[in-house]
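Figure S7 source data.
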Amino acid sequence: MKKKFLGWILFLITICNGQYVGAQELLTNVYGRQYTFLNGKWNVIIDPYQQGRRTSIYKNRPLRNKADFKEYEFEGGLRLNVPSDWNSQLPELKYYEGTVWYARKFKVNKNQDENLFLYFGAVSYRCRVYLNGKEIGSHEGGFTPFQFNITDLIIEGENFLAVEVNNTRTVDAIPALSFDWWNYGGITRDVMLVHTPKVYISNYFIQLDKYKPDYIHAILQLSERKAGQKVRIEIPELKIASEVQTDGQGIAKTSFRAKNLERWSPQKPKLYQVTVSSATDHVKENIGFRNLSVKGTKIYLNDAPIFMKGISFHEEIAQRQGRAFSEQDAVALLSEAKELGANLVRLAHYPQNEYIVRLAEKMGIMLWEEIPIWQGIDFKNAGTRMKAQRMYTEMVMRDRNRCALAFWGVANETAPSEARNAFLKSLVEHCHEMDTTRLITAAFDLPKLNPETKAFEMNDSFIEELDVVSINKYMGWYHAWPSDPSEVCWNVAPGKPLIFSEFGGEALYGQSGDSTVTSSWSEEYQEKLFRDNLEMFNNVKNLAGISPWILFDFRSPYRFHPTNQEGWNRKGLISDQGFRKKAWYVMKEFYNNK
Ligand code: GCU
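Tokens for the predicted alpha-D-glucopyranuronic acid complex:
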């Protein structure tokens, strides 16, 4: 008992003196700072019974004497690539849900004039991080970045880093117990050591006014919470060099006119080099400027209505049967979206890696990002709500300088209830605190055919909170056609822009069959299904966009059919081997003519 009590005292002391740093306020634009990757082969120990923490393997202690022994060793054992999921690296880990320990050493030359941050692009799903035998913090959420200030924790020379990763699904998690994609686990994105000066530019948000075409707002936070520090923002191509001082919180705010500004658009994705500098730090990146708003049932980009020619994809490279994580992966995914003629990608169903976000912006593709509030979430659980808010903060803080980001999605196919409405309303409010320029939407699968009006309608008070309402409806797949597609009427959220964020059906590439038989799983059936849905969309008066589900076949433990699916959701317009199905050409033609 005494030992346990002492343990608690020690734990409280470490919390107080800041050793337990926890995941901190995110640095803006880490790829624009001085960094070194910790990517590569890491040593791993698979720990299904979670013995590693109990036996403190993260201390990696040396043998004490001849009588001593250890029942583990990181070096010389199994190794996995970082970044990557573990499921695609070892056959025995294909379905694994549990704990895997990752560990590696890294050398540092301590420099007292700088801060050192340990930055993770994402770890799925939760993790605890240990440096030189001490727990320095933890993180939950498989799709957003986090970092630790390790300046005072590193030692000159060799440091030992251990990460305890666990991907077990739980009822209070986001996503929760079941979801239609693979439960990949692992250190799935870049790991970096980020160097900053002692006093550094922590974060900034530089964006065009929501409505004015030539008025830029900037807010910057320095690490030193003190007034009078000079900050400079330069956009050389616009001949802008704006100097401003911080307030007592170390925050500097300014706005300035930008004559001859060329606003970003899919046709001309213009980006400007922006440099932010303080007395000790300077950071640069390319930023675009555009106006985005809703007028009636139309979405306006800059000064004209724009139809969202959307498509979705999961963060997965089907041929590798694993998570996407690199710049090359981003090129592979987005070039197919561009080829289809899309001007919007819905990054389903979670924030995807920063390479995808930045490349989409360069290619002129708008983005819809969401955190994985997917169907059954524990909306009554205050802890789950806190997690959702934090995930939202991490997503918005990482991407709010990306002008291609057009939509923040707050939910996918959630059932109306008081708890769900309160939970999602709090998310919408939280988002508005961080960013008021983007459109907030959510995807619903609730519309039902009203026998009186013969139209699909939806009754959900939560839509009042949204700028744009989105509908997932699988006419011709999960739902039989109630009449000829040209006669199917919709009357959902009549006063708001409506996006069909999911529609489609399955086909096994290369399988031909009767285009009227759903269970044929044929390309002909899928092709006709797409033609029928496009026909139906002519009746949707407030249609502001469509986004077929989905660009690529993707892995899902839901999909059991032994010959048509084999653990793959086959709604892709492109097969898991990269071949375009007949329906791809239907969408290509539609977007070309739109
Ligand atoms: C839902 C859900 C998707 C899922 C799709 C399907 O609408 O949003 O995540 O993959 O249906 O059933 O294929």
